[in-house]
Write a structure and sequence with these properties.
The structure is a single chain. The chain is α+β, with helices and mostly antiparallel strands. The chain is built from 13 helices and seven strands. It has helices at 57-63, 127-138, 150-158, 165-168, 173-177, 183-196, 202-208, 216-226, 229-234, 237-241, 247-259, 261-272, 280-301, and strands at 13-27, 33-44, 47-53, 70-76, 82-86, 111-112, 120-121. Strand 4 (70-76) and strand 5 form a beta hairpin. The chain starts with 12 loop residues before the first strand and ends in a 20-residue tail after the last helix. Bound molecules: zinc ion. Zinc ion binds next to loops.
């Protein structure tokens, strides 16, 4: 047992026994298939756990987790709950082992196994992947669209109104209000929340776009270095590699992402809608810089000798002897 920073016992390991009621397969935004065990509710570290991630089919086979089994579940600190082992695996009436699917359970499309560990859906338009991408885009760590929860995303995607993040900004009140369980007032609230997300800034947008190799820290570093999506998209590999946390692989992934016609189309529509525009202080500082350039040009034209003393970065300069 280890005490957390604030003295709480956030690292205490909690265990419990639960029964596996079902095993289903989730499709993530990148297409990775994950088996998930639905278990009888068990209280661990103050929260009731009903679902446990089994990571991949090899892991599931290794632990030989089957529907109806009693399993030992544990949770430690911020680590998500895991199944340690089956506790009654020797009983005679066990169900059959869960077999990995041959096709994507969401879109019935073909699967690949690129890294030998995970099965992946190859269809970028797979509805499960689209929903997960939108959910990630709207999440608190990205564009933080408060009124856009999983149930609404489900309806927006299933109705065909939303296929990409850019479609959110093209939503109209009539279409949104016609969705089941929505109504005009909720639709207006949703559209206001979507509108408000336009000013979240570049770092949030980069996180929301699900770019490979781009976590929150790298997104902030990229946004600080390039300032606008346009500048970032025009950057070459060397410029990208200068940014902390990017590296060779990250730079190549960024260039490939921006080179992909599908990403480009979504980004173009987002930009046209005014999403990820530089926040006010960026605009103000670029305005100050251009005013400064005008002033220097004026001084040069007037033939006055000057010394750039403090550099342009601070927005200060000195001219005189
Ligand atoms: Zn699929």
């Amino acid at each position: 047992m280890k005490a957390g920073r604030n003295g709480s016992e956030s690292w205490r390991v909690m265990t419990g026994i639960a029964t596996v009621e079902a095993i289903d397969v989730q499709v993530g935004r990148t297409g990775i298939l994950t088996p998930v065990a639905h278990i009888s509710p068990v209280r661990l570290a103050g929260t009731v756990v009903k679902r446990v991630n089994l990571y991949n089919f090899d892991e599931m086979r290794l632990k030989d987790v089957r529907v109806g089994d009693d399993v030992l579940v544990w949770e430690a600190g911020n680590v998500i709950p895991q199944i340690v082992q089956v506790v009654n695996g020797d009983r005679a009436d066990r169900s059959s082992p869960c077999v990995p699917p041959h096709r994507c359970p969401a879109c019935k499309g073909p699967l690949t196994r690129p890294g030998a560990v995970h099965l992946c859906c190859t269809n970028p338009n797979c509805p499960a992947r689209v929903k997960e991408r939108i959910r990630h885009f709207a999440s608190r760590g990205a564009m933080n669209i408060k009124s856009l929860g999983p149930a609404r995303i489900e309806r927006l995607v299933d109705s065909g109104l939303v296929r990409t993040a850019a479609d959110l900004y093209a939503l109209e009140i009539g279409g949104a209000a016609a969705l089941e369980g929505m109504g005009e007032q909720s639709a207006r609230r949703l559209l206001r929340a979507i509108e408000a997300s336009k000013s979240r800034g570049l770092a949030s947008l980069l996180v929301g776009l699900s770019m490979p190799h781009i976590g929150n820290t790298t997104a902030k570093a990229l946004a600080a270095r390039f300032g606008t999506l346009d500048a970032l998209m025009s950057a070459d590999g060397w410029q990208l590699r200068e940014v902390a946390g990017v590296g060779k692989e990250g730079a190549e992934a960024i260039i490939a992402f921006f080179g992909n016609p599908r990403s480009r189309s979504v980004i173009h529509r987002l930009m046209m809608a005014g999403v990820g525009a530089p926040p006010a202080h960026h605009a103000a500082s670029s305005h100050r810089l251009s005013a400064l350039v005008d002033k220097i040009t004026h001084i040069l034209k007037a033939g006055v000798r000057f010394v750039l003393a403090a550099g342009l970065r601070g927005g200060e300069y000195d001219h005189g002897n």
